[in-house]
C-alpha cells in the first residue's frame, strides 16, 4: 500500500513532495497595490467569479520570502523548506463576497509548487528576490523606518517579468485592507485523447489561512513594472497606476480549502 | 472563458505550462539495467500492478537529455524546451502484461514537470547530467565506439542521489528489450479537511509513445549507485547487481494516455 | 580607455563584476566552532602562517546570508546584491599574532566571487542555506531565544559538503572571541607554458573589516558534519569535536587589504 | 606546501577550480556574425589593440555548449566538466595582425570561469542555451540540413541579454573566416587603499588553441538581438545588420597563452 499525499507515493511515505497538512508558513512580504485595465483584470477571472464593482481593476502584487514547516521542524532543512514567491491577487466577487483571485504565481521550489497546485494556486517556477533587513545596522540594508527602500523582482525562464520598489512611510496595523479572502481554482486535466478539454478536477475553492499573524507592517509608496515575455500573460495586467506599497512579516497555517458550490 | 490545458489557465491560453498534446520529444539516454531486492521493487508498486515473476527486482535507470516541441517549433526556445530527466522503471505485470512502473522521476524544468504529472509521472525537481558526444573529435568527449565511457548523475536538494557509468561494447538495434510499456498512476489529492486520503484523481493509465524511434544504440557494461537522502526513498532500490548499460538516442510523440480499467 | 575595477573592463565602467571599494555588507550568520586533527589544519596553511600553539586544530565554520551594497543602494537589486556564503576559518599565527586563515569558501553569486578573489578569499560556487527568523511568530520559524534551533548546509556540484545544527542557549555580546583577524592569500597564476608554478600574484594580506557591528548574538551548542566529494578537500578538516555554536547578525565595510611583508 | 594552480590551493591539490593545463574542449557552436556601430566596437578595445580598418564594427557572437577534460577523463563528471558559454568577439588589429577581442563573455560554471580569468577571458556568470540536434529524427529537433533552425539565448541575473536565430543554408568547410586569433587581457586588481587603479596584473596575451578541429559546419542566415540591463554594456554593441549565421562542432586544447610585448 503506497503512502503519501502528493506525488510521488512511496512505500514509506517520505518521498512525497508534500505530506498532508497542517502546513505552517512564515515570511517577509514586499507588496504593491495597483490598478490595471478593468477589462484585463476581468479577463483573468474563472467562471464563478465576477469583477468587484467597487474596485474593478485593483490588483495586489506580492513578493515573499517564505519558510515552511510541517509538524517536524522542517525549517531545519532550509534547502527544502525555504522558497521565494511572487503572485498577483485580483479583486473579485464570489457571489456577493469580496474576494481575491490569483491568476499568476511563481515559486522557486518544487515542494511549494506541489502544495500550491493542490490548493489551486497555478504555480510556475520563477526566480524571486526582495531586499532584506538585517539587525546589524549599516549601509548594506534599509531599516524599518520612514524612508526605508525595498526592491523586488521576478524572473522566469531567464526573462524579467516584474520589478518593484517600495518606500516606507509609516507603520501600520495591517497592510490596509490589502489582503482579502482568496478563491482558487483546483484544476487537473484529463489526458485521454478527446478529453483534453474535460478536466478531471476543475473546482473553485476558498483558501483558509489559520492563525494569520502580521508583524512589522509598514506602508508607503510604490513603483511596479510588469514585463512581457513568451509564454506569459502577466504583463497584460500592466499597472495604470500604483496605490499603497507595503512591507510586512506574516505567518499562518493551512489545513485545507473549502469547496465553493456553484 | 479561460484558455489553456494545465495551470495557469489564462485569457489567451499562452501562459499554461503545457498546452494540450501532441508533445514531441527527442533525447539522448544513458541507461543502466539493474537488479534490486525484489521486496523493495514490489513495495513501490501501486494497487493494480504485481511483480513480474520472470524478472522480479529488475529495474532500469535512465538519465536523459531531452528536447521538447509542440506544434510551433518550441525547440527554438531551448530555455523552456530542453530539460534533463532521471527515472527508474521497475518491471511489473498489469494483469498478464509485462509492463514497467516509474516510482521516482526527476526533471529540471517546470514545463516538463507539468506534462509529467498529467501523464502520471510523479516528477520532482532534480539536477541531472550525462556525458555528451561531440562531432569534433578529441580527448574532451567519448566516441560512439567500443570502449566509449559515459558518466551520469542525479542530485536533488543539493544531495547526490544517483551516479552511473556506462562503458560501450557493441552497437545494438535497440537497448535489448530494456524498455517496456509503462503504466503510470495519475494522482491529484483532495485538500478538504477530512479528505486528505480520498484523492480526487487516482487512476492507472498506460503511457503511449507514438512514432518511437531509436538511433545510435550502443550497449555495454555499467555501474550504478543510488544514495540515501532525507525526503527520498530512491536508495531503497539500491542495486544488488547491474546488467546491461546502454547509450541511445530516442524520439517519440505523446498524444494521450489510455485509462486502465481495474 | 577602459573603465572598471575587476573583469570585465568596459567603456562605461558599469559592466565589471565589482567596482572599487567601499564595499558594505550586512548578514546573518550561523556558526560552529570545532576542532579537527591539528595536522589537517596545519596542512592548509600557506607559507608565512604557522599553527597557533594555543589553539591548534581549532576551526570556525560560518554559514552566512549576505546583502551587499556599494555607494548606490545596490541592495535595491537583490538578485545581484544578495548572496549566501560558507567558509571555514582555521586558527593560525602570523608572526606572533593570532589570526585565522580561510582555506575554503563558497558563494552563490559571481559578484561576490570576484570581490572575494581580489581580497584573497579562494571562492568557489556553492549552494548555502540557513534557517531564518521571521518577525511574525508561529511554528514555521525558530525564535531568538533559548532552545531556538537553526539548520544550515552547503552543497557544491550537487553534493552535500557541510551540514550544521545550532541550538541557542543564551544571548552574548559577541560570539565569544570566535572571530579573529583574517589573513588571506591573493593568488593569480601565470599561464605561459613553463610558468604554471610561478604565479603572477601570490601574497599574504590582512583583511580589514571596518565599522564591524554585531547584533542579536546568541551562543549555544552545535553539531557539524563535513562530507567528502570529488574535487574537494573540505572533509579533510572533519570535526573531532564541536565547541560553541552561534547565530548573529553582522555588518562591516571593506575598503582594502593590507599587504603583509614576509 | 600548498598544491594547485588556481584558487583554492590545498594540501592535496585536488580542491582547485582548475589544475594546470592541458585543457581539452569539445563543443557545439551557434554563431552569428554582425556589424555594430564602429565607435561602439572601438570603445571596447584595450590599449594595444586598434580597430581593424578593413572590418571596423564587425563582431561575432558565439553560443557554445562545451565539455571539458583535463588528463583524467573529467568528462565523466558532467556536472563539473560541462558548461555553456556566450561571448562576443570584436574584430581588431594587434600591430598589423588581424585579431579578435572578447569584451564580454558568460559561463554557467565556476571551473570554466576560473580557467577563463587566467586566460584573460573576463567571464561573468550567465545562463546560456542553444537548440540541439539529436540522432533520432522527429519534430522535436532540427536536422543538420538546409532549412535547419537553431535558437540560442543568454540571460544573466534574470534578464535576457541576447537572443539569436540561425537558419542553415549549406555545409561549409569552416565558418568562413569568422574566427580569428584572439587577444585577451589578463587583469587582476590590487586592493590596497590608494592602489585600486594600479592592477597587479594587466597584460595582453594571445590565446593559443592547439589541435583545433571543426566538424559538421553549416552556414546560413541569422538574426540577433542584444538587450540592455543594469550592470551590463553588451547592448552597446547592438547589431546594425547581421551577416553569416553558422552552427558547428569544434574541439581544441589549451596549454598556455603567449604574452604580447607592448
From TrEMBL, chains A, B, C, D:
Pfam families: ADC. It comes from the Bacteria. This is Acetoacetate decarboxylase family protein.
